[in-house]
Amino acid sequence: MKKTLLYILTALLTISCDQEQFLEAEPMIVVEGWIDAGGYPKVFLSHNIPAADIDYRFDELDEYLVRWAKVTVSDGDTSVVLTGRYTKDYFPPYVYTTGEMCGQEGKTYYLTVEYKDFYAIAQTTIPSKVEVRKFLPLYDAGKYQIKTLIDDNPIEQNYYKFFTRIIGRDSMYLSSNSAVIADKDFVFPAEIIVNMGSSIMYNDEDNILSEDDALLIKFAQIDSVAYDFWDEYKNMMGLGQNIFFRNTKSLPTNIIGGMGYWFGYGATEYLLEPYNHENPKRIR
Fold first, then answer.
1. Is the separation of the CB atoms in 21 and 74 below 8 Å?
2. Is 2 inside any structural domain?
3. Which entry of 59, 91, 202, 221 is 20 to 30 Å from 5 by CA?
């Protein structure tokens, strides 16, 4: 079965607006990485994919994964080389991670990727954790949604992001559609709808929350760089564009020597149990 490509690879390719033809991108490393407050770093690596080849089978994408890179994360005092391994829980299905370094609020983390002739670096600082004040489930016309009430520090410029994971369907957190927030655009306390994250692994009609679903929600404070990335990603999705092949510009990146992102998340996580979504359990 034909599928479109990996989550971020060709979203970062540049397309010609005037001629509406694909420009051939230079070979680059694509990085998708993050570290949560209280969590371990996770990094996914791949090559960018020629835009001219628009159809792939999943089993044909394996050659674009980068498996033998040296990936190092440092907090300025300690450096740890991450271990790469296959995993069924993520897509792409190969992750670099470690249990020897746990993210801390306020710390800056430096990422280095070395692979053949490629050398990429990035840095990110984990913002402080934030909490959801209240969860307000809504049921209307056969659709079940989660509304949240969140607070904000009025003397700071802050940015927030939601991720969701429906237990039994999703093996990883997915970016919540539309839920990226700049506090300058809201009056707080603010009510925010948390739409379920979508994936190329299933159809849009599957992207519906039911009352009997168990749901994990990750609510993170992010920095302005992460906000710019996720806001542009949201805009592309919201306009109904095919983000893999019809972008007129690349997504923002903080990777020097590559494409993609390395972000720190000041995240809290909640478990919303079936038929009890208004009483979440904070799990981190």
1. no
2. no
3. 221
185-231, pLDDT tens digit by residue?
Answer: 888 999 999 988 877 666 555 567 888 899 999 999 999 999 999 99
Cα angle for residues 227, 229, 234 (degrees, 5° grid): 90
Residue 209 DSSP one-character state: B
- CA 67 remoteness from chain centre: 20
- What is d(CA 268, CA 265) in angstroms, rounded to the nearest whole number? 9
What is residue 88's DSSP assignment? S
Domain coverage including residue 153: 9-282
User: In this structure, what token pair is assigned to residue 69?
Assistant: 């890179």
Judge whether 64 lies within some domain: yes
| Count: domains in the chain | 1
Q: What is the C-alpha R_g of the chain? A: 19
Residue 1 lies in a domain: no
The answer to the question of residue 3 being in a domain is no
